[in-house]
Amino acid sequence: MSTATAFRFAVNVTPKEGILDPQGRAVESSLPHLGVSGVSGVRVGRRVELSVDAPTEADARATVERLAGELLSNPLIEAYTVELLGATSSTATTEPADGVPA
Amino acid sequence: MVRIGVVVFPGSNRDIDALNALRVAGAEPVVLWHESADLAGVDGIVLPGGFAYGDYLRAGVIARFSPVMRSVAAFAADGGLVLGICNGFQVLTEAGLLPGALLRNRSLRFVSRRIAIAPERLDSPFTRALDARRPLRMPVAHGEGCFFADPATLDALEGGGQVLFRYVHPDGTVAGDESDRANPNGSLRAIAGVTSAAGNVAGLMPHPETAVEAVLGSDDGLGIIRSLVDSAAERAAAARPVVVVGAR
């Protein structure tokens, strides 16, 4: 019996250090209106979640890294991190990583 | 007659204007569909404005992976002339055919109004029909047009003559970076358009193709379109095999 596993990942994309982030600046400038002070360094990015069918986590991660570098982020202006959310096997369900439901 | 292709992506909306501008400039415009890798033997290519693939993820990025773009990249690598306007400029930067990136306007607002740009050089395939480095009036209409590159890249672009257009005031002085209304999106060093290192690929955020006839409010953009058409015609003539007529 084959044991294809679906690995669930999140790719978090944020503007690189030093890159203009007018959205972050706009959010930050709204904070005083909420009566909030002492918050700084607001950066607005995006999060993409996806599932990859692969024999191993390393194979799945390689696919995600490629997508993250070539499509989901623009390396000139954005940085990304890849986060494993969980894994689901077609024969049995493994314990999700980090306690996050798969 | 020189044939110039206009690539149509789902979400392109200035393709009709580009086709019209090419006609006004004396070329035969050819529609190129994004799903086809066949460039129909055109002598030059325009990537028009719009919101290709809804501008999802980042403006221009999904269009980059369409079949036609592989052919456009090969055409450019072979020295073919490619002009990206607005969204077309964004597609070319995402595809790595032009340097830099286009960020969200610093104002966070979509800007749609008449601005002025001036060419940095008159010897490029895209500016040769312009008579002087005077301000050219034409519209901008975009939300992500803030040209960005790191300082070293900006210096290299300036040194290599790759800055093609800058936003200027009506008197021709270059606009400031930020909070200067003459720079509609906050582009670094007021850069409105650049070329590739080889000079045969260019992009700009403003719309020369909607400023080609007096009835449109300005015909200042026609010189840019005509430059492309003339350059493409010259290149096509040079590539054509010499036919000896009358040989027996």
Structure explained in plain terms:
The complex is a heterodimer of chains A (102) and B (248). With 102 residues, chain A is of the alpha+beta class. Chain A has a domain at 5-18 and 45-99: 2-Layer Sandwich (Mth169, Chain: A), CATH 3.30.1280.10. Chain A is built from 2 helices and 3 strands. Chain B has one domain (3-239): Rossmann fold. Chain B is built from 5 helices and 11 strands; from the N terminus they run βαββαβαββββαβββα. The mean pLDDT of chain B is 95. The interface between A and B is medium-sized, with 10 and 17 residues.
Mind telling me the C-alpha Rg of chain A?
A: 18 Å
Alpha-beta content class of chain A: alpha+beta
CATH superfamily of the domain at 5-18 and 45-99 in chain A: Phosphoribosylformylglycinamidine synthase subunit PurS
Summarize the largest interface: chains and residue counts: A-B, 10 and 17 residues
Number of helices of chain B: 5
CATH architecture of the domain at 5-18 and 45-99 in chain A: 2-Layer Sandwich
CA gyration radius of chain B, whole angstroms: 17 Å
Query: Which residue ranges of chain A are poorly predicted, with pLDDT under 50 across at least 5 consecutive positions?
Result: none
The fraction of residues in strands of chain A falls at 25-35%
Which key phrases capture this entry?
heterodimer, A: 102 residues, alpha+beta, Mth169, Chain: A, elongated, B: 248 residues, alpha/beta, Rossmann fold, two-stranded antiparallel sheet, 5 helices, 11 strands, 23% strand
